[in-house]
Amino acid sequence: MIKTFCAVAAFVMLAHAPVLAADAPSPDALRAWHKRELRVAGIMHKLRLANLASCPKQELDYGLVVARLADRASPAVRTTQAEALGLRDYPTALGVIPGSAAEQAGLREGDLIEAVGGIAWPLTDAVPDARKAFWEALNAGIQAPTMEIRAEREGQTRDFHLTGKAACIASLFMINRSSVNASTFGSRIQVNSGLEALLQDDAELAFVLAHELAHVILEHTGPGKEAEIKDPAVRRRIEMEADTLGVLLMARAGFATAAAAASIPRMRKANGMMSRLLGIYGPYMSTDERMVFLTKRADEVRVQMAGEAQGR
Ligand SMILES: [Zn+2]
């Protein structure tokens, strides 16, 4: 009996380090990390948009990641961030998720954002709170149905009109940790970089993310539920529910459901000793049992999807 990858966190993990600023990586390492973050975010984006019908809680999504050189970072870190990611003192479009509202509006990675909703980025922070007003406009923008962005690309200023897309509520963080694991607390999903590195097949990674999204949708975890999910019977039930719904979620986002069972032996092999150490809640299903369960579920979902396609 070996516990597989999914630890339902009973607490929120600390400190997502989006650009590994703390240990001043090389530009190549920073670029590689960023590419991996965007891979995970891109798969999650597909899952969140394709599964509105299953999500009781929705939010608008623009698929745009904005960042700028940190004022307080060391000169060496700033230089690396500028070289590797194209960051400037201007807020920069650091990530534009494929298929998102931002991409469809024409924004591209590297665009320098000059204004949001008519609020311009102040070149200096001489005016108190002027920069704060810009970030507030950006935050207000992502909660409104549409957003106006003025950005500079290759010396030319362009205007972009974005229309937000409804998506399932879920936030995703990839943390720099080599163990093969993912966890969910409330609507916050955390993926270890070791899991992303192991699952190079997008559909296999999509299954793991879909399983976590299922925990979010079914409200399995969160404040006040820590004790409940330590009960092995409860744990087994919610994990089976997450697998059951997860396979459907990945199918709706266009991923091959056979990848669900295929991901399991890979994770078992990688986890080995670690999975036994992590087995604090006890195993909820053996690897073999889970593979049989997921294979059967994949067949059911294929039949269901074929039926839905015919009905359209
Ligand atoms: Zn789980």
Specify the number of helices.
9
Could you tell me how far the N terminus lies from the C terminus, measured between alpha carbons in angstroms?
43 Å
Give me the Rg, rounded: 21 Å
Number of strands: 11
What string gives the helices and strands in order? HEEHEHEEHEEEEEEHHHHH
Report strand order across the widest sheet: 5-4-6-7
Helix-and-strand structural type: alpha+beta
Tally of structural domains: 2
What's the main sheet like?
4 strands, antiparallel
Mean of pLDDT: 85
Shape: globular
Estimated helix fraction: 40-55%
Ligand set: zinc ion
- Our estimate of the beta-strand percent is 15-25%
Oligomer: single chain
Parts with pLDDT < 50 across at least 5 consecutive residues: 1-21, 276-282
Offer a concise description of the structure.
The chain has 312 residues and is α+β, with helices and mostly antiparallel strands. Helices cover 45% and strands 17% of the residues.
Question: What can you see in these coordinates?
Answer:
- The protein has 312 residues and is α+β, with helices and mostly antiparallel strands.
- The protein has 2 domains: 58-166, Pdz3 Domain (Roll); 170-311, no CATH class.
- The chain is 45% helix and 17% strand.
- The strands form 4 sheets. The protein has a 4-stranded antiparallel beta sheet with strand order 5-4-6-7.
- Strand 10 and strand 11 (188-192) form a beta hairpin.
- Helix 6 (202-217) packs across helix 7 (232-252) and helix 8 (258-277) packs antiparallel against helix 9.
- The protein is globular and about 60 Å long.
- Residues 1-21 and 276-282 have low confidence and may be disordered.
- The structure holds zinc ion.
